[in-house]
Amino acid sequence: MGRLAGALLIVTLAGCSVTATGPLDADELREAARINAEIATHHLDNGNLARARQKIDRALEQDPALVDAHLVAAAIDLELDREASAGRHYQKALRLEQDNPRVLNNYAAYLCRRDQRQRALDLWELAAADRLYDQRAMALTNAGRCLADAGAWSSAAGYWRRALRIDGGFAPALRGMSEYQLETGQVDAAARWFSRYTAAGKESPSMLWLGVRIARAANDADRLSRLTRRLRERFPASEQAARLME
C-alpha cells in the first residue's frame, strides 16, 4: 500500500530539544511530549528508526493521551513490520479522538493493508465528511487506491472523481484516473488524464513509467522514445528504469 497519498504524514518538526531543571507539571509534560513526537517524526522521515523509537517512547511516557504520539508510534511500528503494535496505537488514537479525520485517514490506510477494506472505506468516508479537514481529497484518493489495488477499478474511479470535485488539481487522483482509463482500455482518455497529472504532479519514476505504459498501449513510438529516454536519464537506478529491459 505504498502509494496511499500521504497516509502517514503526521506532524512537522517545530522544536529540537526538551530541557528541564525540575519535575514538570501537567502542561509542561504535554508540551514536552508534543515536541518529542515532532522530533520522532523528524528521525522517522530521515530513516533513523532507533532514535525515532526512543523519542516516541519518551513522548508516550510524558503524555499517554497524545494522539499525534500514537500516530507516529504506529508509523514507526509499520516501518519495523510490527503490524499488531501499530494497530494498537491506531485503536488507542481512535478511542482518544474518534472524530479526528487524521486518525481516521491513517487508521483506514492501516486497515486496507490488512485487507479490511470495508472498514477502511467507512473510516475514509468519515474523514472526507469533515468539511473542516483540509485533506478530504487525500482521504477519498486513498480509498480509491485501496480499491484499485484490489482490482475494483470502477469503484476506485468513483472515489477519484469525488476527490477531484474537491480539488481538481490533486495529482494522486489525476494519476488514478489515468491508470483507470488505461486499465479499462481507454487509451486516449488515459493520455488526457496523464497530461493533467503531469501538469499537477512532480516528475517521478512512477509518473514516467505510467507514461511509458500509455505510449506503448497507444503505439506512439515518438512519445515512447521520449519518455523512455527521460526515465533512463533522470532515474537510472529506479525500479521502473530496470523494468524497461523486460
TrEMBL record:
Source species of the chain? Spiribacter pallidus
- SUPFAM superfamilies hit by this protein: TPR-like
Q: What is this protein called?
A: Type IV pilus biogenesis/stability protein PilW
Q: Which InterPro entries match?
A: Pilus_4_PilW, TPR-like_helical_dom_sf, TPR_rpt
Q: State the superkingdom.
A: Bacteria
Tell me the lineage of the source organism. Answer: Bacteria, Pseudomonadati, Pseudomonadota, Gammaproteobacteria, Chromatiales
NCBIfam families in the cross-refs: type_IV_pilW
Q: SMART domains of this UniProt entry? A: TPR
